[in-house]
């Protein structure tokens, strides 16, 4: 499965930034060992259900340590039997565009 998710603290720092709290969530993802991509709005994480959800839960926990309220947006592509789809899905689109 691939999950696109975004975690944000309900309370920003004194400059209105959520960057430090979000960085802690990204650290959890990076340390998980699962394939991932991070962009300006979301992190895409790939793995089996239990592993992916455990990482997301831990990321929420580290953000909630900095903020009494946390927002989570999550979208999942659940496709049993498929792996290594983070790049493969994009490559298929490129093939259609180039074809």
Describe the protein.
The protein has a single domain, classed as Alpha-Beta Plaits (2-Layer Sandwich). Helix content is 44%, strand content 23%. It has 3 helices and 4 strands, in the order βαββαβα. The protein has a 4-stranded antiparallel β-sheet. β2 and β3 form a beta hairpin. α1 runs antiparallel to α2. The longest helix is centred in the middle third of the chain and has 16 residues. The chain is elongated, with a radius of gyration of 15 Å. The two termini are 27 Å apart. The mean pLDDT is 92. Belongs to the UPF0045 family. One of its GO terms (cellular component) is cytosol. InterPro entries: MTH1187/YkoF-like, Thiamine_BP, UPF0045_domain.
Question: What order do the helices and strands come in, and which of them pair?
Answer:
Blueprint: E1 2-9, H1 19-32, E2 36-38, E3 43-46, H2 49-64, E4 70-77, H3 85-98
Antiparallel strand pairs: 1-3, 1-4, 2-3
Helix pairs in contact: 1-2
What is the CATH architecture descriptor?
Answer: 2-Layer Sandwich
CATH topology call:
Alpha-Beta Plaits
**Low-pLDDT residue spans:** none
Strand fraction band?
A: 15-25%
Order of helices and strands: EHEEHEH
| The number of domains | 1
Distance between the termini: 27 Å
| Backbone CA Rg | 15 Å
- Structural class category: alpha+beta
Q: Main β-sheet: number of strands, strand sense, barrel status?
A: 4 strands, antiparallel
Question: Strand order of the main beta sheet, please?
Answer: 2-3-1-4
Average pLDDT, rounded to a whole number, is 92
Helical content class: 40-55%
How many DSSP E strands?
4
Overall geometry: elongated
Please identify the top-level CATH class: Alpha Beta
**How many helices?**
3
GO cellular component, one term: cytosol
InterPro entries: MTH1187/YkoF-like, Thiamine_BP, UPF0045_domain
Family: Belongs to the UPF0045 family.
Domain Thiamine-binding protein: 3-93
